[in-house]
Write a structure and sequence with these properties.
The complex is a heterodimer. Chain A is an alpha+beta fold. Chain A is about 55% helix and about 20% strand. Chain A is built from 13 helices and 14 strands. Classes of the chains: A alpha+beta, B alpha/beta.
């Protein structure tokens, strides 16, 4: 068997001898590998973003919304009327076995004033349970307690965006802010969460006890009404059960008969997000396979050029055979040539792919994530393309008759 | 034992319906250290005979023993191995690799029998010195004259210490003066190292350098003589 280093040298020389042709042949692989890496980076980026949003929302999450209500024969839209109460939230938390915890939400937007600064944010009246439901720890200070809820204390937990806009360089814990002219003591700062799945800034938020919200800020004519119940199931397997238990419990509590429409809706947020994640996954696969086709086309380009090269160098092959090159010596020479084309092309392709995804995320603002696995995949795929499409020309070369090859002009 | 021995070697080509006996029961012995010429007009079978004894082709029937080895039984790769070790080719058209230096051309046969790089270079330089091309190691074929290119080819034939040089019209592309230089070189090598030289030519002037001349016609040997 011929030694590999000198075979590589021979192959490189042959490729250098036809610089333009080699470069154009490589271009196919460069574009193919670059496209595979970029597409996978876009797909992975999208998936990672969704994963981040899922975990920022909290896991195993269900949301109970007020349902459509009918008033005098006119059907109002979903959520037009508040049908849920604080007591419903408590019941869900206590009586449904698959529910880990639940928190009511009564929210609204209001201006917050601190010193000479003001800022409008989403004010959420809730219970201490919300922190567990949303997996949302307190970064500084303390969370509010059940006592705060019972006493309708005027205390608040502030989100990071509110802190940035109102307090600047002041430590907010212990300060007094005014909402609708009512003074609230800031008792803690929430950890930063980032954007929600629909692009909302989750940190532009202020938590207060739900009772305080009802009595002082967003009170309605029906005391005890809340807008939403956020529920955390015990595990992802319990989600479906929890949904069923909540539906049954609320039907019973709201005295809804068999034929009546529910006045509430239970939404499985985690499931929705998982569906989104799955569709991103499919998108990644789709993008990747479209890009792979260009890699395949690049491989066919290599085969084409190698076949031309074998024909052009028939006499060289004859000379090598005459001085003792065996079948595999010839095969290896052309295989290594094809692989050199595809591997060098693959290397450039990786660089193109990395810069391509950087440019995409800069210009289009798409989140792109280049995983080492995708680089490895694209690179080894290009190597395999080289071997696969290089083999036929190499095989053809090795079967030439030395006499005919030597006579070839 | 003869170095080259053929017994009833036959080679038949069938282009269409006709049968051409390119070699018709050729029996011949060539001893170690001989310098022989094979002559004949084109189509006489001399090139086919050359291909057979050069292990580039196998006879259809009959036996060919090279250094005691029956060639007809060997497969493609074994034939390549025999060519590598036993035979050095010199062609009319030189058949050097273009874009490759003289040194690398001479190294070529050693690429295929595992000689380590340093030794390869050493032996190739020595071979180039023997054919009088010392100092031109890094010239490419297109930077060398025809005579020099043929010397590179001879150095390539020598480098593996093959016992046989097969020269197929080695002076066909050269002028008279250069031709005689090349022939003198072959004679010198034959005399100095007991290397067997088999020369195929149609020029009587060239055949005169050899001690034995075999004439082919229609696939048969019509004369086998020493020109005196």
């Amino acid at each position: 068997m011929m030694n590999i280093p000198s075979t590589i040298k021979i192959s490189l020389r042959a490729l250098r001898g036809n610089k333009m042709r080699s470069a154009l042949t490589m271009l196919g692989i460069i574009i193919g590998v670059g496209a595979v890496i970029t597409m996978l980076a876009v797909g992975t980026g999208a998936r990672q973003k969704i994963e981040e949003q899922i975990s920022s929302m909290g896991s195993n999450l269900l949301m109970v919304l007020p349902g459509a209500s009918t008033s005098g024969g006119a059907r109002m839209g979903s959520g037009t009327q508040l049908t849920l109460t604080l007591a419903d939230a408590e019941a869900v938390k206590k009586e449904c076995s698959s529910v880990s915890t639940a928190a009511p939400i009564l929210n609204g937007v209001a201006q917050i004033i601190f010193g000479n600064q003001n800022w409008s944010a989403s004010i959420i009246g809730t219970t201490p349970g919300i922190l567990e439901v949303r997996d949302w720890p307190v970064a500084a200070g303390r969370p509010f307690t059940d006592d705060d809820v019972r006493n309708a204390s005027k205390v608040a937990l502030v989100g990071q965006t509110v802190v940035d806009n109102l307090f600047r360089n002041v430590n907010p814990v212990g300060k007094i802010v005014r909402i609708k002219n009512i003074p609230f003591t800031v008792i803690g700062v929430l950890e930063a969460k980032g954007q929600s799945a629909i692009g909302q800034d989750q940190d532009d938020t202020l938590f207060i006890p739900v009772t305080t919200a009802q009595k002082k800020l967003f009170g309605t004519q029906f005391p005890g009404m809340i807008r939403i119940i956020m529920v955390k199931a015990k595990s992802s397997e319990d989600l479906a059960n929890a949904e069923k238990q909540i539906t049954e419990l609320l039907k019973q509590r709201h005295h809804i008969g068999q034929k009546q429409e529910d006045d509430f809706t239970v939404r499985n947020l985690t499931q929705m997000m998982q569906a989104a994640e799955q569709s991103t996954h499919i998108m990644t696969l789709l993008l990747g396979s479209v890009a792979s086709i260009s890699l395949l086309v690049g491989g066919i380009g290599i085969m084409n050029i190698m076949l031309v090269s074998v024909t052009e160098r028939t006499r060289e092959i004859g000379i090598r055979m005459a001085v003792g090159a065996k079948t595999w010596d010839i095969r290896l020479q052309f295989l290594i040539e094809a692989m050199t084309l595809s591997v060098i092309g693959g290397t450039f392709g990786i660089l193109i792919g990395i810069s391509g995804s950087e440019i995409l995320s800069l210009l289009a603002g798409w989140p792109t994530v280049i995983s080492p696995a995708s680089i490895l995949l694209a690179f080894s795929f290009s190597g395999i393309v080289g071997v696969f499409f290089g083999f036929y020309p190499a095989y053809k070369a090795s079967l030439l008759s030395p006499i005919d090859a030597l006579r070839h002009e | 034992m003869a170095l080259i021995e053929t017994q009833n070697v036959t080679k038949i080509y069938r282009p269409g319906d006709t049968e051409i006996h390119a070699l018709d029961h050729i029996s011949l012995q060539i001893e170690r250290g001989e310098f022989i010429s094979i002559m004949g007009p084109s189509g006489s079978g001399k090139s086919t005979f050359m291909n057979v004894i050069g292990c580039l082709d196998k006879p259809d029937s009959g036996q060919y023993l090279l250094d005691g080895v029956e060639i007809g039984r060997l497969n493609r790769d074994e034939l390549a191995g025999i060519r590598n070790k036993k035979i050095g080719f010199v062609f009319q058209g030189f058949n050097l690799l273009s874009r490759t230096t003289a040194l690398e051309n001479v190294e070529l046969p050693m690429l295929y029998n595992g000689v380590p790089p340093e030794e390869r270079k050493e032996k190739a330089i020595a071979a180039l010195n023997r054919v009088g091309l010392g100092g031109r190691e890094n010239h490419r074929p297109n930077q060398l004259s025809g005579g020099q290119q043929q010397r590179v080819a001879i150095a390539r034939a020598l480098v593996n210490d093959a016992p046989i040089i097969l020269a197929d019209e080695p002076t066909g592309n050269l002028d008279t003066k250069t031709s005689s230089e090349i022939m003198d070189l072959l004679v010198k090598l034959n005399a100095a190292s007991q290397m067997t030289v088999v020369l195929v030519t149609h020029e009587p002037d060239i055949a005169r350098y050899s001690r034995r001349v075999i004439k082919f016609l229609d696939g048969r040997i019509i004369s086998d003589s020493s020109p005196g």
